[in-house]
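quick one before i forget lol
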Amino acid sequence: MTDGRRERANERFEKVAEETSETVTHAATVLEEELAAGLAGARRLEEKLTESRRVDPEAFDELVARFRTDGHALIDTVVGQLKMADDQRGEVIRRYTSDAHDALDTVLNLARLAPEVANGLADRLASPAPKRPTDR
């Protein structure tokens, strides 16, 4: 390879590296903004729980939906970076991607039961103890 061709190849690789770095930086910024919005929702839910000792199922579902969206976006971003790094691992990456999305959905589907369980527990703790018959 001549020096001129080597120099042009180096310039192209540097440009790709710079563009990749910019993409990762942009993705990190967007993710940070989304996480901040999700944390604000979690704090509001925590404040309501502290005040009323009740979990608002709608607010909880909204928080889970946001977390689900952000979680899937994060998985896709990581997978995109892995694909760029090595296309030879395509099948393994595809399987792991599918498993990661399924695991996230399963955990969040289970988490949707939390308000009902928490509110039921709060009701049981708040109700007076049943009266026992007196011994004679």
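fyi The radius of gyration is 25 Å.
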